[in-house]
Structure formats: structure tokens, C-alpha cells
Please model this.
Amino acid sequence: MGCRPEVWCLAGGLVLAVLGGSVLPLVLGGVAAPVLARAWRVRALGRVAQERGDAVIALCGAVIAEVRAGCQPAEALLTAARETGGVGGGEGSVLAAARFGGDVPAALRDAAKEPGAQGLLGLAACWSVAVERGAGLDRGLARLEGALRADRDQQADLHAQLAGARATAVLLAGLPVVGLLMGAALGASPLRVLLHTGVGLGCLAVGVVLEGVGLWWAAWIVRRAEA
Model:
């Protein structure tokens, strides 16, 4: 497993502090590290939520297959939940409710509180309708599964369309580093100018502010598009 981004941030700040003979890069790295750590956690939680959503879709499909094969709803849910892990951390309570005649919809609604598991709310609704009105569970779940798949595919398509915007933002964020390397290659001593002169410190302050605003703006655009 690679190092987390905040580790790279602190390491980069330390290297620049040593090369530039100033503690300022290390301080800036320490300030930026928590921001990067939070962004990393949000991204990791997004991946977990996506995996949970896929598991819920698989659960619906498995329950449909079991019911159409002749199993009773409770038995179908028991088998499908074990095979797919679609109820996540609430598996124990859901399986207990299905096995012993408990409140399955309530257990499913509790399990739906996990990120990415909102599709279990639909499963709970289908279960309630099937039990209270005698409707076919497989038909309701088939519609639910189709809706969940369509939503997932739409989100995946949107994510692919925004990949270019994200890559551009990362590229623009890295341009100041390229500028420093080019200046060093030309013998201009950019770190000395930035860290040990008044004009350089002023340019550094303005650059840091503009960099932060630019990254925030790019992230805001992506979030608005995904909303």
C-alpha cells in the first residue's frame, strides 16, 4: 500500500525546508497535511459506499433468483444475504429477523443507514408490500434492481465525464513545482528568492492563496456537477 497523501506532503515540506534553508515549507506542509488527509478519507469513504451499493444490487438480484426458484422470501433473503454480503454491518439483525419471524423491514432500514446502502430502504418497502398486500416480492425487487442499476450507471458515466476536469485540476496544482524545478535548472535559485527575500515571500503568500482558491473552486465545480 502506498503512503497517504499527507505523508508525501510533510515529506515534501521537509525536503524543501532543508534545500531552502527555511522552516516555512515544513510549516506550510503541516498546514496542508490535514486538508489532504480529509480529502483522502472522503475519497476512501466514497469507494466504500460504491462497493456497498454494488452489494445491495447483487443482493436484490440474488433474492429475485431465489424467490423465482421456489424459495420463501425469508429463506431467499437468508441465502442471498450470506452469498452477497449486501446488508453489510446489519447482517446479524437482518438474518435474525428473517430466520425467527422478526421485523425484517425495520432491520433493513437500520442496515440502510450505512453509506451506500440506501437501496436497502427500497428492499424494505418491497418486503412490506409483499407481506401486507400479498404482492409478488420478485416483481417489486426487479423494478428496484433496475432503478438501482440505472442510477449506478448514471453516476459512473458522470464520474468518467468529470475525470478530465479532475486531471486538469491536478495538473494545474502541480505547475508551481514545475516552475521551481525549471528555475533551479536555470540556476536562478528560486527557493532562496522565495524564502529569503521580501518580494519572494510576498509572491509565495499570493501564490499559496491563489493555489488554495483554485483547488477549492475546481472541487466546488466537481461537487456541483455530481450533485
